[in-house]
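Design job #97: recover the sequence.
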């Protein structure tokens, strides 16, 4: 379970400018399997997502994941919570897909034969097996996004946080990634501008100006977001 207790995030203003509030007094208890986070650009969605695995820490309040405080148990939280960035280049670091997945698996301390078998299995599952040894620079944007997702899932996270994982993708690859995310057993927190994806979630959080202004089941949450955008 993911819990936000009176969480605020404030960043220091540059050059003596006033501090900038990013998230304001957010309380959440997230138990649903599929949670979508929607909201306008700059509303605070990524900040909220990054709080879940301790990439961002609260200025005040606490974020607790299965009993682990992200501020004091950051490493343990990150073993539990996988994070997929919008831009796969932020995540894919090795020369080939095979090496990239092997790097992700390193933490599991498998022997070589088992690790190689797992790498092959994961790449095949993501339809990347035939590209195992090519340069990652030759992959399409969609293939790279799948590789980034595969690398995170290879670490067997209990919770997956994805920050707009399909934004760079064409319709075909978006469908592939959507179906894959929908098929996962893990709890998934999905930041998205794709309202079709949000509508499939069990719960939709609408973020506006650093606050969760609506919170409920889809499609009601999606409608609340549409209504909020319509008055702008
Ligand atoms: N470290 C930081 N320093 C200053 N401002 C920041 C920092 N991090 C985030 N912000 C600002 O906080 C606001 C919320 O940012 P965030 O990335 O969480 O928004 P978002 O809802 O994910 O936006 P988008 O949909 O455009 O990705 C933005 O105005 C952003 O510029």
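Job complete. Output follows.
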């Amino acid at each position: 379970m993911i819990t936000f207790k009176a969480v605020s995030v404030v960043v220091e203003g540059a050059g003596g400018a006033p501090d900038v509030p990013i998230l304001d007094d957010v309380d959440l208890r997230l138990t649903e399997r599929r949670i979508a986070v929607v909201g306008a650009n700059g509303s605070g969605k990524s900040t909220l997502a990054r709080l879940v695995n301790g990439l961002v820490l609260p200025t005040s309040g606490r974020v607790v994941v299965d009993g682990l405080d992200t501020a004091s148990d950051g490493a343990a939280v990150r073993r539990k919570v996988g994070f997929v960035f919008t831009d796969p280049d932020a995540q894919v670091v090795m020369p080939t897909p095979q090496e990239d997945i092997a790097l992700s698996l390193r933490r599991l301390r498998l022997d070589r034969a088992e690790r190689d078998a797992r790498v092959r299995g994961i790449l095949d599952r993501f339809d990347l097996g035939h590209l195992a040894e090519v340069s990652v620079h030759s992959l399409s944007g969609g293939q790279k996004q799948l590789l980034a997702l595969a690398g995170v899932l290879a670490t067997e996270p209990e919770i997956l946080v994805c920050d707009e994982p399909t934004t760079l993708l064409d319709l075909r690859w978006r469908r592939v990634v959507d179906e894959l995310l929908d098929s996962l057993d893990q709890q998934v927190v999905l930041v998205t501008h794709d309202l079709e994806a949000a509508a499939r979630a069990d719960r939709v959080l609408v973020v506006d100006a650093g606050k969760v202004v609506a919170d409920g089941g889809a499609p009601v949450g999606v409608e609340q977001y549409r209504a909020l955008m319509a008055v702008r």
